[in-house]
């Protein structure tokens, strides 16, 4: 088990502003920003806690970033924290999306706009890849060990990127294998 982080949000207001800022920064993918904010800047979670909770958030229905914000809010302030975190993730992005939808309706057929959106897609992919590499350091403390985790990482990549399995299949098959192996390993250690 990982050592829990000792830092925590001081108020519901800090929780709201943190998740509002994350939501605004995270258009196209909040993972890179949320990990840096919660682990490195705020220290509300350790890297190992983040990896564990992100894995849970990914397997739950709905967007993982929203699931994680609800989990973090609930961790510190119960149901009120969950609602405040969720409101922070939704309020400003909703207003921005409405404004962008209106602008896109007027300018979306312009070649410059289409090219700019393609360029932003490449940047988002790079940010997700970089965050994934940073999170690999948490595998050192994983009960399965680096070798088994590396095999699961490679098989997940091959399954999604090369074989083009549906994400659900990768989660059920490889996630299930990882779960069983970790359960057995922890059972042996206990």
Summarize the structure.
The chain is mainly α and 190 residues long. The chain is built from seven helices and no strands. The longest helix is centred in the middle third of the chain and has 44 residues, at 64-107.
As a whole number of angstroms, the C-alpha radius of gyration is 19 Å
* Helix fraction bin: over 70%
Shape: globular
Question: Major β-sheet, in short?
Answer: none
Whole-number mean pLDDT: 86
Tell me the number of strands: 0
Q: What proportion of the residues form beta strands (DSSP E)?
A: under 5%
Question: Order of helices and strands, N to C?
Answer: HHHHHHH
Outline the low-pLDDT stretches. Answer: none
Structural class: mainly alpha
Enumerate how many helices there are, as a single number. Answer: 7
* First-residue to last-residue Cα separation: 12 Å
Give an overview of the whole structure.
The chain is mainly alpha-helical and 190 residues long. It has a domain at 1-112. Helix content is 78%, strand content 0%. It is built from 7 helices and no strands. The protein has helices at 12-25, 31-41, 47-59, 64-107, 111-135, 145-162, 167-189. The termini are close together.
List the main descriptive attributes of the protein structure presented here:
190 residues; mainly alpha
